[in-house]
Structures are given as C-alpha cells and as structure tokens.
TrEMBL record:
Statement: the UniProt record of this protein carries the keyword Magnesium: no
SUPFAM superfamilies: Aromatic aminoacid monoxygenases, catalytic and oligomerization domains
High-level lineage: Bacteria, Pseudomonadati, Bacteroidota, Flavobacteriia, Flavobacteriales
Coiled coil regions in record: none
Protein name as annotated: Aromatic amino acid hydroxylase
Family named by the database record: Belongs to the biopterin-dependent aromatic amino acid hydroxylase family.
Cofactor(s), by name: Fe(2+)
Amino acid sequence: MEAQFESNPLIDRLPAHLKQFIIPQHYEDYTPINQAVWRYVMRKNVSYLGKVAHNSYLDGLRQTGISIDNIPNMYGMNRILKEIGWAAVAVDGFIPPNAFMEFQAYNVLVIACDIRQLEHIEYTPAPDIIHEGAGHAPIIANPEYAEYLRRFGEIGCKAISSARDYELYEAIRLLSILKEAEDTPETEIQKAEAQVDFLQNNMGELSEMSRIRNLHWWTVEYGLIGTLENPKIYGAGLLSSIGESAWCMTDNVKKIPYSIEAADVSFDITKPQPQLFVTPDFAKLSMVLEEFANSMALRKGGLSGIQKLIDSKSLGTIELSTGLQVSGVFSHVIAHDGKPAYVQTTGKTALAYREKELVGHGTEYHAEGFGSPIGKLKGINIAIEDMSPRDLSAYAIYEGEQVTLEFEGNIKVTGEIITGTRNIQGKIVLIKFKNCTVSQGNTILFQPEWGIYDMAVGKEVISAFAGPADVNSFDMISHVPSSHTIKQKKSAAREELEQLYQHVRNLRENKTAPLTLEQLFSEVTSKHSNDWLLSVEIAEIAHTKNNNELLEKVLHYLEHLKKIRPEVSLLISNGIELIFPELV
C-alpha cells in the first residue's frame, strides 16, 4: 500500500484487506477554522458532558491524550492508546460495516480524519474526527466497554449481509458526503435522500448484518446507561453531537430498556433519533450480544445458514462437523428433511481447517467452484467421520477401492478412492477420488472428465459466516468506493478568514500577531459578517485580558448576529456561556 501512516504492533498485524482502507492523516491540512470548530465542540462537550456522560468519558479523555484545544494527532494518539491495548487508524468517511467491525476485532479504532464544517458544528451525518476521536476513543479507556467493543467486532464481522446491504451502505455514504459538502444543490441532496429512503423501506427481511448494525447503533453510537429516569451517555454519536447530547436528555426522546429487541429497530442516520435504549450496565451489553450471536448462522449453521450465504451473493464460509471449512460464493444447496444434503460454490473456492488453508486446496486448485455431499450415508447410522479403521474398511472407504457412496438426499458418489485427509483428531475431513461421478437421480453434479473429485466429509454444517476462513486465501484488496469525501473549497475570502482565525489563535496562545484584537474584530465584522465563531473567540480573549470595552462591543455584535441569523443563535449563546455562564 502506498499510503504512509504511523503504525504500532496492533496495526502491523492487520490483514492486508483492512489496511487498504487506511489513509494518512495529513495533519497540516487542518485549517485554523477546523481547529476552532474542534475547540468549540470539545469545550462545550466537556462542560456539558461532565454532568450527563458516563464517568468513563472524562477519565478516558485524559487517558487517551485527547486535547480540548487541538485536533488530535493520530501519531500521538497511537502512542497513548497503545498503553490501553488499542490503536487508531485514519480512513476516508464511511467504510463497509463488516470492515469497520473487523477493525474493532483487532482492537483498532477507525477514525474518519475529516472534520465537520462550521455550518454543521452541532451535528454531521458524515463520520468525522470529532465523532470518532472525541466520541469513541475516550470511552474505550473503560476495560469492560473496550472488551465489549472488541467482542462486538469479532462477532459482527462474521454477520451475513444481504445483497441490498451494500447498496444501502453506498447510498448512506453518498448522502453523508453530499450533506457535509459545501454548496451541494438541494436537488442532489433530495435525490440521495430519496434513494436512502427507498432502500431503507425495501430491504425485505433484515439480514444478520442489518440486525447487528442496529445493535451497534443503539449501543456503541447512541447508547445510554443507567436508569430510565436518570440515564447517562456513553454512545459516541451522542458524545460528539452538541445538539443531540442535550436533546436526548429531554422527554422528547423515548427511553426504552435495552434488550435483544433493539436488533429489529432500524434507524435513520440523517435525523435525530426518536427513541434511545438504556442499558443498566456494560455487562448487559455483552449478555445481549451473546444472545444475538446464538441466533446467528455463525453458531447455528444448518440449511438456513447456507441459504443466507446464497442470498448474500458474497464470499462466505461454512464449517462442517469435522472442522473442514469451505470458503467461496455459495450458489446452490440440495436439502433433505430440512438439512443440507449437497452444497455448491461457484468460482474461486478454498478449503481450510481451523482458519488455515489446506495445502493444495486454494483458489487456484478450486478455481471453478466446489461441491460436496453433506450428511450421513443412506441406511447407515454411523457417519463417515465417526467410523473406525475397521468400519471404513468394511464399507470399502479405503485407498485404491472402487466405491459407491449413497448419501441421504439421494446423492450418489461413485469412483476410485485415491487418498484421504485427516484432521488433528484423526477424523477424515476430505476424500479424493478419480474417475468419479456425483449425481442426484438423473442430475449429474460432477463427472469424470472434470478431473479429480474432492469430497468434503461432515455429517452437518455447524457454522456459516461472512468472509473467508483464511483471509490469505483470497485477494480481498478490492476497495473501490463509489464516492469520495469532498474537501472544503478554497477562495480568497476563505483564505483571509482563515488568517484571522490563526491570528486570534496566536493571541490566545500569547504568540505574536500582526493585528491587535480590536483590529481583528474590525476585520471580521466588516469583511466576514456571516461568521460568528471568531467573534466568540475574540470575546473570550477580551474577557481573559480584562478588555471590557472591546468585550462589550463584541457581545453587542453577537446579540445582533443572533437576531439576523437565528439558526446560529443557540450556538452563540452556548459559546458565551462557556466564557461566563452567569450571563446566560
């Protein structure tokens, strides 16, 4: 990968298909306005969240080294996160949900390194460094919660998606980008919103990925903890949103006890949430997660698990009772008495045992797919995997023997056995045939002209999950997003305003600036009358330096702005309250 980024041992051990999402932070690209936005949100959040956030939040800010005054540098964050067993990487906006969760399974926090614009300072639908760095990072300093997050990622990345899930991800990604970008035509936003609405209302039966994403949303992103009457905030979406962190504490937002039922409550990422779930403690989160995992194909396997993989039309894995794992795109299953009797993949397939590819059974060898009967032989109570050497000999399952194996479901395998492969416990997991025909009635499933036939051995499918058993079996470096985040536009006026912000920042830090505070205030009011945050910062410095004459002018100007720009009135009031709460 070309991009350079600060690494540590946790990042080094990430598989290549996750590293493809990592981008460098380019700290120098953050502008003085970006820094001011970060500082405003963090000052407001720390002031307010000290009262309503879970007590792990403020402790976590200190432990993770996140500054109130400066956007966090990923390099510095990684050195500190290493102390609590985590790491952080920068990415470009939303990444696919299963990749996001797999990062968590490796104890790696994904941080979208862009930052919201001043116009969206209260809330942005796009992931940004305020949401990730100031929302997610501090709370993982709590060991119990951090383990929940890791475990969630471990289970969540195995959840099977529907074919529509990726469409919805792409639609939401595009909408979040368009809403955050400057000057996006309203028609484009409406078109993107309509597509998201259509997909959300036409998803059909919710997939495992959709349902576990719901759990993630109502806990990791928008979770409350404590009692229904007096909940505290721990979800990153609430911790990083000035508007929703206050709104969620009102009676306008319904509070519901957290349970497995949250998996079936979908959400709209572009709007404030009408209800939130309250967990009594972090232990409850883990209990519900395990309850959900018990319902997944990951733990149930069977015919329904294979069918979920077929419906997903994506790379997935089944594991047989012998431990043999088949990874590929599943295309067909033959059922018998509610159980799989034969399963088929299409295209590149790999066989593995305990997440390690079997030698000679990679995607080059199984380039055209793989099919095998599953289950017991017809009329024989003992499964092949449980047969002793004497049993195997009695049924002619032996090297060099010409044999016909008739499985339940009317699957017949006829050919000469070449050899067998056993697992570490001594059970046969694979039998190799030559001159082999596999059929179900008049339907030919494999014929001798196709070459050597490898038959999987297993009386049942014990697990089915998304992704490959061995990540090294497949070339998964294929991330080509359909949309890219849109950077802020540059103009002479914008550059001039950025310079004013930098000068004010210098004065606050007792550095030299070419203009006095009074001159800076005159510049911003005469040339950038739409801006409000810089005047709030000037008021703060004037108050600190006891410059009451200037302070009075600035406060009068801000009151005027509140009247002509009512949409920023609350933001201005919040900024003044940070300077001297007694005035508001």
